[in-house]
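Hi all, posting the design record for the shared folder.

TITLE: backbone redesign
STEP: 1 of 1
STRUCTURE INPUT:
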């Protein structure tokens, strides 16, 4: 069961069809400093899924900190994360009008509303 302060995030973005193999390859070897920034700012259980028929990437993660906006800004201010985003953003197309890349004023990835959740638990 999720901790009371855990926030779940789901986001989508388009993957350029000509970049599928490269995108998957770079994600087989995510830079350790990028993963360290995610850990440091309370991002856990992060996954990205690919749905080829729609060239769709679907990201899911949990945020376990107490100040989401502050921590997301700190991740965005990290120089190595900015370098990573420059690499991966070039393989993506945002759904958001006017978006120009990760960490900018207009979000690069699009947040998706959760409509159902089942966390299990005892059936007693």
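Okay, here is what came back for every position:
SEQUENCE:
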């Amino acid at each position: 069961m999720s901790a009371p302060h855990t926030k779940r995030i789901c986001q989508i973005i388009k993957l350029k069809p000509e970049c599928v193999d490269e995108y998957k390859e770079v994600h087989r070897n995510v830079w350790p400093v990028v993963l360290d920034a995610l850990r440091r700012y309370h991002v856990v259980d992060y996954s990205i899924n690919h749905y080829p028929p729609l060239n769709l990437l679907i990201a899911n993660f949990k945020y376990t900190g107490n100040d989401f906006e502050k921590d997301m800004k700190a991740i965005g201010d990290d120089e190595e994360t900015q370098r990573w985003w420059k690499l991966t953003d070039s393989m993506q197309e945002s759904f958001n009008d006017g978006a120009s890349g990760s960490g900018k004023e207009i979000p690069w990835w699009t947040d998706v509303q959760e409509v159902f959740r089942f966390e299990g638990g005892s059936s007693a």
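COMMENT: The first helix runs from residue 20 to 28.
Let me know if anyone wants the other runs.
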